[in-house]
Structure formats: structure tokens, C-alpha cells
Design brief:
Elements (H helix, E strand, L loop, with lengths): L5 E7 L3 E8 L7 E9 L3 E2 L2 E2 L2 H19 L3 E6 L6 E11 L9 H11 L8 E13 L2 E3 L9 E12 H11 L7 E4 L2 H8 L3 H5 L1 E7 L4 E7 L2 E8 L3 H12 L3 H11 L12 E2 L8 E2 H25 L7 E5 L8 H9 L2 E4 L18 H21 L6 H12 L3
Parallel strand pairs: 1-6, 6-11, 12-17, 17-18
Antiparallel strand pairs: 1-2, 2-3, 4-5, 7-10, 8-9, 8-10, 12-13, 13-14, 15-16
Helix pairs in contact: 1-3, 4-10, 6-7, 6-8, 8-9, 10-11
């Protein structure tokens, strides 16, 4: 067994659950010792519907990965699947307690903690908190340690989750067959740090993770996730449309989508027909493309509407992840509708990961693994006092991603 600790990362999707058990050495590059995969049960429309069924799915993936890794898991990180998540700016304030009015590390830690306090009746719990800017006596200041003042304030970007839903999921993940949950990793935050180019990170970009049951959207501006939301519609709804529209079973519709599906009528072979057992007439692939395009256009419209209602605009770069993103022609269709650049995310390389995991359907687990590795290095550097201030810490974190 390795001297390095083994850490597990669990990516809960609406169709599949993926687990990695990794070694985290001194560098911020994880090594996957074991991987596990299981069908996700117990989620309906992106929400937890059957806790026991979901726990069974998670245990299956985690046990498989742990067995392949042949090591004991010491930490477990998980994405808050099935939990409503939103992004908001919150402000914290504290008085400087030193008689000299010099700002020290405890002052900074105290004001950041104050910014994480949400209203009692909000029903939200903080998942991630990233300080954006500090103020000393209402004066903006990046490097606050060693400065002098009476009052210190911070503006913090909060990713918050529905408290009750998060508590329910915590109960499942902390149940029998799991290691104690170390922390949550929001997919959008992990993806933003690992699949964006340096240019996209420094400007504005939109990450759309299109899975089977949900489409998770994260808007990134100048390296920070500024808006995130989840739509309960994705690939499984396309399959259902094909099933109903063509009068075939759901399984037949899924196979049809995977084998012949395209993102538009004009992308399909006009001469190609597909026959199904029990049906008199063959199905034209142009009809298949028409049905798929109708649902995709609805998803694109809902995403755009949510962004505009939040007072924001579609950015110049859109990055697609998730299994549904692999549908031929989807990126082209979206680029035409939004008149923007669209590309499919290339999964970041994670040493030791199975070769067949290197596609858009497994981008999230790779991004979460890299995020976890950076958290590990981040914690060690913080303990050793390598950072002078909060901004130093977070600038290190984001710069480190570009070197992966």
C-alpha cells in the first residue's frame, strides 16, 4: 500500500455514478488507483426520490473503485447531486481588534466567516465561498494583511445549496458502506477550473453539463463562477420524445438515439430508414433528427431565458460537457442559435484513469479529481504559511489549473 493517502471522489449523475480512488502526492496531479461505475437509481428529475436505491448505486461504484485500488479510503468528496444550487454575493464585516489597528490573519478569517452567514430563513447552506474583494474602512484593498484600519469588510461569492436537500444527501453519503464525507464539490466550479482555456478563464464563458436527466449551467466571469442553475431536462427527455413520437419502447428509442441520432433534421441521411419490430412502416432518420432538434431548441431557449432573466448575457464562449453533448451536430446547432463559439470539453488528463473514460461523458469526474488534488496542495501550503493573504491563496488556486 502506498504511503500517500487514498482519497475518493464520487460523481453522482442522473444516469450513472462514477467513483475514483486516488493517490494524492506532493504535486497537484492525482493518480487514479481504482475506478468504479454503476447505474444511478433513486433520482427523479434530478432530485432524490429513493434514498435507499441511491445509496445502493453509490455504494456499488465506490466499492468497485476501492476494491480495484486495494487501499483504504481516508477522505471522500462528492458532488451535491439532486440538490438545488444557486450563486450569490454576500458581505461580511468585522472590527479590527488589535490596539494598533493592524489587520492580522485572524481578522481576515473572521470577516470571511462572517460573509458566509446566510439569513436564518433562507433555507440555504454554503457549499463554496470565494472572497472577491476586501475593503478597509470602505476603501477597496487587495492585500489587507499588515494594513491599518478600524473596519474590515469582504464581498464573497457564495455557492449555496438547499439545506434540507443537502442534509438528506449527506445522510445517504454518510451511511453504511461509505467513508465519512469530507466535503462537497460543485461540478460547475470544478469544470470552470479545469476545462476552460486561459483566455476563457480571464474573460467570460458558459459551461453546460448536459447529462441524462439534468442540464447544469455555470457562467464564469474573470475566473469566478458568477451564476449557476440546473434545468431538469436533458438527454433522457430526448429519448422519451422519440419513444412517444415514434411509438417505440424507451429502450428502442435510446438505442436509436445513440446509433443514429443527430441534432437536426438537415443533418440526417435523407435516404436512411430504420425498421422496428411490430411496426408496419420504417422510420426516416430525418424525422428522428426533427424530434431531437425540437427538444434541444427548447433546452437552449430555457438556458438563455434563465441567463437573461438574471440580468446577464450569453458569453462569447460556450463549453459543453456530459453525455448528451456527444450528440452529433449539437455544438453546431447551439453555435448557430446563439451566434457564439461552442466547443465540446476535452476531459483533463488524469493519470491512471481508464482510457474509455476519456470523453465528454466523464469530464465531471476528471474535473472533480483535479479540484480535489488542488484542495490538498492548497491545504498543505496554507498550513506551512506559504500564502500571505486570501487573495494569494485563490490566485494560486486558479493559476495552478492552467498548468494541468
Amino acid at each position: 500500500m502506498s504511503k500517500n493517502e487514498c482519497v475518493a471522489v464520487l460523481d453522482i449523475g442522473t444516469a450513472k455514478t462514477v467513483a475514483f480512488v486516488m493517490e494524492l502526492g506532493s504535486r497537484a496531479k492525482p493518480f487514479v488507483r481504482g475506478a468504479g461505475l454503476s447505474a444511478t437509481l433513486g433520482l427523479h428529475k434530478g432530485k432524490v426520490a429513493d434514498g435507499e436505491a441511491l445509496a445502493f448505486s453509490l455504494r456499488g461504484a465506490l466499492a468497485q473503485a476501492e476494491q480495484n485500488a486495494d487501499c483504504k479510503i481516508s477522505k471522500l468528496f462528492c458532488n451535491p447531486a439532486g440538490v438545488s444550487v444557486k450563486t450569490l454575493l454576500n458581505r461580511g464585516t468585522t472590527a479590527i481588534q488589535q490596539k494598533t489597528k493592524e489587520i492580522c490573519a485572524p481578522d481576515v478569517e473572521r470577516v470571511v466567516e462572517a460573509s458566509k452567514i446566510l439569513p436564518v430563513n433562507s433555507g440555504q447552506e454554503v457549499v463554496h465561498a470565494v472572497p472577491q474583494r476586501f475593503y478597509i474602512d470602505e476603501r477597496p484593498c487587495q492585500q489587507v494583511l499588515g494594513e491599518h484600519g478600524v473596519r474590515l469588510e469582504v464581498e464573497t461569492r457564495i455557492i449555496a445549496a438547499d439545506a434540507q436537500q443537502l442534509a438528506d444527501l449527506t445522510g445517504i453519503v454518510n451511511g453504511p458502506g461509505f467513508g465519512p464525507l469530507t466535503g462537497w464539490i460543485h461540478n460547475g466550479l470544478a469544470l470552470a477550473g479545469s476545462v476552460l482555456t486561459e483566455e476563457e478563464q480571464n474573460a467570460s464563458a458558459l459551461v453546460m453539463d448536459m447529462g441524462a436527466g439534468t442540464t447544469e449551467v455555470t457562467l464564469v466571469d474573470k475566473q469566478q463562477p458568477v451564476f449557476t442553475f440546473t434545468l431538469p431536462v436533458a438527454g433522457r427527455h430526448i429519448t422519451n420524445d422519440l419513444s412517444v413520437g415514434l411509438g417505440i419502447s424507451f429502450d428502442e428509442a435510446e438505442q436509436l438515439k445513440l446509433q443514429y441520432g443527430v441534432a437536426g433534421e438537415d443533418m440526417a441521411d435523407p435516404q436512411k430508414m430504420v425498421e422496428f419490430e411490430g411496426q408496419k412502416n420504417a422510420v426516416s432518420l430525418r424525422v428522428v433528427g426533427e424530434i431531437i432538434e425540437a427538444r434541444l431548441q427548447e433546452i437552449f431557449m430555457l438556458v438563455q431565458q434563465s441567463i437573461l432573466e438574471a440580468g446577464r448575457q450569453i458569453p462569447p464562449a460556450v463549453i459543453l460537457a456530459g453525455g448528451t453533448a456527444l450528440l452529433p451536430g449539437l455544438a453546431k446547432l447551439l453555435a448557430t442559435r446563439w451566434e457564439t463559439q461552442v466547443r465540446i470539453a476535452d476531459p483533463p488528463r488524469v493519470e491512471g484513469a481508464p482510457v474509455n473514460f476519456h470523453n465528454a461523458a466523464f469530464v465531471s469526474i476528471a474535473a472533480m479529481s483535479i479540484y480535489t488534488a488542488h484542495l490538498n496542495i492548497f491545504a498543505k501550503k496554507t498550513e506551512k504559511g506559504y500564502f500571505r493573504g486570501i487573495f494569494d491563496k485563490f490566485s494560486y488556486y486558479w493559476r495552478a489549473f492552467s498548468g494541468i
